[in-house]
Amino acid sequence: MRALRWLLGSMLLALLAYLVAGAVAPRAFLAAWQDWEAWRAGATLHAQVVDDHRWTWLEAGSGPPLLLLHGFTGSKENWLPLMPLLAARHRVIAPDLPGWGASQRLGEADYGFASQALRVNAFLAALDLRDAVLVGHSMGGGIAAVAASQRPPRLRGLVLVDAAGVPFAANAFAESVLAGGHPFAVHTSDSLARYLGMVFEQPPFVPWPLSRALVEQRVADRAFEESVLDAIGRGAGALVPQRAAGAIAVPVQLLWCAGDRIIDPSAIGEWRRAMRGRVVDSVLLEGCNHMPMMEQPEAMAAALLRFLDALPAR
């Protein structure tokens, strides 16, 4: 009985410590969870100043490099389910794009498609990533397309995943953005759940205090998110990738969720027309909405590796 009382007392103290720490420092829990997920994926954390920004990225594996660019309101951690599936054959690098996550944000800097593309190419050069393939998701896809159009040395291929930057069939998300809204905005636990429901077919469960930390982070980033959405979602800036795509000179794969409710799959046809014959492969994945790297990592990895294996040898 004494041992049982001791065990129950220890459990209660641990629960109390968890509740107090979660209430006082929820972001510490989020950072610890992200570190744990990176460790499970075999990824290590790196940082380096490139030109005017300090970049932070996760890296795993060895071989020909893949540079994975996240989407709007995303982060390097979005790629963790996919990274170990690619790392056996490739050096996989997933940064927080400048302005996002743990990478540096400068108050007056431009974080639209064209400026971020220049930074991506500077990052490729700084890390001497030869024979690299750019893989861009959503906003990151538009950035990757513009970066590829600038023809960085020895770029080997381009993969656009549910990529922004071209017109597509109207949906609720696009209509809200064009009307001046921010449909991804998060300011409460309910709006976090709504946001996850918008981008996932099966939204993940986010336990407290991780949910609280995510809400706090998104509230702090609200003004920045609004400014980026203005730059990439409305007006002439939204179609910068489409206008640049004709200059892309490497093979391209288009990889989409068949059920994407954010960037409608009709965008595939627009990308094909804009890239003038550079698209060599198009893949529609079932069972996902806008986050294939998290909802269907095995299927995405298989499609991506088939494309990579078929690229011409240097």
Number of DSSP strand runs? 8
Percentage of helical residues? 40-55%
Q: Can you list the strand order of the major beta sheet?
A: 1-2-4-3-5-6-7-8
Write the CATH architecture name. 3-Layer(aba) Sandwich
What is the 3D shape?
Answer: globular
Q: Roughly how many Å is the radius of gyration?
A: 20 Å
Task: Explain how this protein is built.
The chain has 314 residues and is α/β, with parallel strands linked by helices. It has a single domain, classed as Rossmann fold (3-Layer(aba) Sandwich). It is built from 13 helices and eight strands. It has helices at 2-24, 26-40, 83-86, 113-126, 139-149, 172-178, 189-199, 210-220, 222-233, 240-244, 267-275, 292-295, 297-310; strands spanning 44-50, 53-60, 65-69, 91-96, 133-137, 157-161, 252-257, 279-285. An eight-stranded mixed β-sheet has the order 1-2-4-3-5-6-7-8, with helices on both faces. Helix 1 packs across helix 2 (26-40), helix 2 (26-40) crosses helix 8 and helix 4 crosses helix 5. It starts with a helix and ends with a helix. The relative contact order is 0.13.
Give a quick rundown of the structure.
It is built from 13 helices and eight strands.
Features:
314 residues, alpha/beta, Rossmann fold, 8-stranded mixed β-sheet, 45% helix, globular
Give the secondary structure arrangement, pairings included.
Blueprint: H1 2-24, H2 26-40, E1 44-50, E2 53-60, E3 65-69, H3 83-86, E4 91-96, H4 113-126, E5 133-137, H5 139-149, E6 157-161, H6 172-178, H7 189-199, H8 210-220, H9 222-233, H10 240-244, E7 252-257, H11 267-275, E8 279-285, H12 292-295, H13 297-310
Parallel strand pairs: 3-4, 3-5, 5-6, 6-7, 7-8
Antiparallel strand pairs: 1-2, 2-4
Helix pairs in contact: 1-2, 2-8, 4-5
